Amino acid sequence: MKLTYEPVIGLEIHAELLTNSKMFCGCSADYGSAPEPNTNICPTCTGLPGAMPVVNKKAMELAALVGLALNCSINKHNTFARKNYYYPDLPKGYQISQYELPIAEKGWLEVDAPSSPTLLPEGEGSSPLSLRERVRVRVRRVHIEEDTAKLSHEKNYALVDFNRAGVPLLEIVSEPDMRSVEAALDYATKVRAILRYLGVNSGDMEKGVLRFEANISVRPVGSDEFRTRTEIKNLNSFRALARASQYEIERQIKIYEEGGTVIQETLGWDDVRGVTTSQRSKEEAHDYRYFPEPDLPPLQLSDAWIESIRSQLPELPEAKTSRFISDFGLTPSEARFLTSERTLADYFESVVAKSKSPAKTIHSWIAGEFMRYLNDSGLSIDDVTLAPQALAKLIDMVTDKTIGASAGKTVLTELFKNGGDPAQIVKEKNLLQMTDVNAIQEIVTKILNDNPKEVDEYNAGKETLFQWFMGQVARATKGKADPNVAKELMVKGLEERKNRR
């Protein structure tokens, strides 16, 4: 009988904070706009002797905001420490971070996970995902530190750019509460959404401003032991997180099945080959020789300050999803799509407020033609200049049958490209829907009379021809015939010809 295994997963999420200046100096935190490498620097962020750090107040406010959004307790007394290790991208030879007393800790976030997420050895696959359950993932700590410089590796040397060194970096550390890759993905997705809702991080993983590190071990199902874990560093996409985690789970299962031992180590992810690679033996806290940062006094946060930060919390994705379901009659999947981005949720609500059409109809337009245009154009919701009022007016014109759905798509494209008033575009392009029953009847009759062969084939059982007939109506009316009227008349006409046989 084969043993079944379950993964034990914890995530560390590193998020650069959207501040104007770096964490401990006045250099710009917008290192991406620096004209050249090593130009956005000063003695403090390059670790020159005698330079003194000063805490970025805005960064602490954003860190506390994230902690509160993740249901954490804010430590009114928190400190900075020196995390000592040598690497070329660390200018001081140590990193200023928080260790024993972080700004926030003991939080939680609920995620969706498969109800039976066990994995089988020898690649037999995972359990079905049809049954899902809510799982609470504990957030161990939220602490702030400084980002490192950027290394570029060439054939036989490496280049260092210190423009990024010292940028405020938030680290969100979960407990090892996730038992499937799906749960880890949902957790990471929800944390990213929260960071974007709060406006503290752009969520642009391609630029490296948000990075994941997965701590993974496996154990027999039913066991409560914590076996040796490995850490996969610097995963900069959800796809990389999923593939790397799945590979590492299967690798460890295979080792145990063959009687081997998993070694605690830090791993990299080779996305091209689809494998994890060893980087170094995994460090423990004592390896970093943490000690209090002597140049920065402990921070004392008042209750009034904490409450002032709490008052800045917006409606977060989970709460907004629940409200969209109850207020607008949307399904959970529809609501989750609309609340995945704060900008998208706000845009949807603005259209609803200006429209007479049902909220579900508006969702259909936004999830359908609206998003299709953005995807085809390589745009994001943040790039949209189409006014919600204009989209609401267009949707209402389709809903009240002033124009057909096909004409609505034409108008939407024009609005995206050139703006304008939907009613004026309809008038200029002669897109008003044809609703005159007699006029549509004449067109239907002519099509049936001109195509006796197709009529006979349809009535003989080739029902797929019905769409062809409807296509002929659309072509003859340039898509302006009321589809419901045309369909009714076409069905009636075909039936009459069938009865004549």
Placed side by side, the strands forming the largest sheet appear as 2-6-7-10-1-11-12-13-14
Strand tally, please? 16
- Percentage beta strand: 15-25%
Helix coverage percent of residues? 25-40%
The figure for the number of domains is 3
Oligomeric state of this protein: single chain
**Which residues form runs of ≥5 with pLDDT under 50?**
118-130
Mean pLDDT across the residues is 91
Number of helices: 15
Distance between the termini: 68 Å
Main structural class:
alpha+beta
Please summarize what this structure is:
The protein folds into three domains: 225 residues, no CATH class; 112 residues, no CATH class; 64 residues, Arc Repressor Mutant, subunit A (Orthogonal Bundle), CATH 1.10.10.410.
Describe the protein's architecture and organization.
By secondary structure, the chain is an alpha+beta fold. It has 15 helices and 16 strands. The protein folds into 3 domains: 9-207 and 283-308, no CATH class; 317-428, no CATH class; 437-500, Arc Repressor Mutant, subunit A (Orthogonal Bundle), CATH 1.10.10.410. It has helices at 57-69, 181-198, 238-257, 303-310, 317-328, 332-338, 342-354, 359-377, 388-399, 405-418, 422-428, 437-450, 452-459, 465-477, 483-500; strands at 5-16, 73-74, 77-78, 81-84, 94-97, 104-114, 132-146, 150-153, 158-161, 168-174, 210-220, 230-235, 265-270, 275-281, 291-292, 299-300. Strands 2-6-7-10-1-11-12-13-14 form a 9-stranded mixed beta sheet. Helix 7 crosses helix 9. The chain starts with a strand and ends with a helix. Mean pLDDT is 91; it is low at 118-130.
